[in-house]
Amino acid sequence: MADVFGLTVERTVEDAAALRGTLGEPSERAANKVTDRIDAPTARWIAASPFAVMATRRADGGVDLTPRGDPPGFAKVLSPEVLALPERPGNRRGDALENLLADPRLGLIFLIPGEGATLRISGEAKIVRDAGLAERMEVRGHRPDLILLLRVERVLSHCPKALIRSSLWRPEAWPDRNDVPSMAELMVAHGAPVDREEMEAVIERDSRERLY
Question: Is the C-alpha dihedral spanning 122, 44, 81, 157 positive or negative?
Answer without folding.
Answer: positive
